[in-house]
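Cross-check.
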Amino acid sequence: MNEDFYRHILEKQVNIQAVPSNQVIGDWVFDLLNLVFPERSVSHQYSLDEIKNSFSNLEKELVQLLNATKACSDCNNELVAQTFFKEFPALYRKMNTDISAILNGDPAAKSEFEIIRTYPGFLAISFYRIAHALLKLDVPLIPRILTELAHSKTGIDIHPGAVIGEYLYIDHGTGIVIGETTIIGKHVKIYQGVTLGGLSVEKLFANTKRHPTIEDHVVLYAGATILGGDTTVGHNCIIGGNVWLTKSVPPNSTVYHQSTVKVIDTKDRIQ
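Predicted model, tokenized:
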């Protein structure tokens, strides 16, 4: 390697934006979730003062993360953190609707404790909801770090820019992709392998609605692919497994993929 290459790497090292590690940013979210969902933790606060102090410390930590990121030099990070925690009770309420949707929708779910402690869908949704709230406060970079961290842990990829209503039910969840401009209504069920994506990945469409709209009370079964910003799945629809959609579907429709499956009885085979 020549001198110019070393100098190139040195220049990158000197000019790199200072950002806390993904683990440090993720730990802040885990601490917040462990506080409000003690089912996730073995360490609990049993006095009102301890609860208040924990929230105060988390707010201070958020300010420190925002200051350390330095992606927004003219932002009032103290105000951002105050606003986030002022609005957090409403966010917490939405997370509890997601728990309710899973408990009522999944025959295998035995308790809220089980969902909070073990379900990857609930973890991915919770990280998304926190990331989306920060994105709405114009926090740069951190929201995407959070959803990608959840993606790495659960296999569920939800862009923080997506708009998702209450009572979201994700079952299993592995391989789900929800794009940036997706809009999802209330009481929607999404199974593993579903893609809510764009028809085009060209950069010139970056500021347009590229991903579909899913209205209330829709069920998207495993492997369904729904593409395009002009594509709307109407309320109370059922989209079957492995369906490929690039056009809108009217409310109260059932869409399914028709395939041919042959079953051969092995007793009829000639040995």
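The longest strand covers residues 169-171. The helical segments are 3-15, 22-36, 48-69, 77-105, 112-118, 120-136, 142-154. Passed to J.P. for a second look.
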